[in-house]
Amino acid sequence: MLNVFEFVIILVVAVLAFRLWESKLKHRNDSAEEAQQDHLNTQLRELQGRIEVLERIVTDSRYDLDQQLQDLEDDTRDSA
């Protein structure tokens, strides 16, 4: 039979083991979340770069001229 002192020691060891296990799980989850966040940040930077390129293309005066010529060609075909 366990006396009170042995019971307290077992209880303290069990609590410490649980806290150590909990800390290890938290650290593992933090590492996974950090890796996922890095991946998302990389994707965001790539998408921002692509948006900048698209904005330059669309705001370029040659794009507007090409679009107007294309519209004129479409109008000419429709009326023929």
Kindly report the average pLDDT value: 86
Instruction: Specify the number of helices.
Output: 2
Structural class: mainly alpha
Biggest beta sheet attributes: none
What radius of gyration results from the CA coordinates? 33 Å
Low-confidence stretches: none
Distance between termini? 104 Å
Q: Report the count of strand segments.
A: 0
Label the overall shape.
rod-shaped
* H-E string: HH
Q: What proportion strand?
A: under 5%
Secondary structure: helix percent: over 70%
Structure description:
- The chain has 80 residues and is an all-alpha fold.
- It is built from two helices and no strands.
- The protein is rod-shaped, with a radius of gyration of 33 Å.
- The termini are far apart.
- The model has no long low-confidence stretch (mean pLDDT 86).
For the structure shown, list the relevant keywords.
single chain; rod-shaped; 80 residues; 2 helices; mainly alpha
Gist of the model:
The chain is an all-alpha fold and 80 residues long.
List the helices and strands and how they pair.
Elements: H1 4-59, H2 61-79
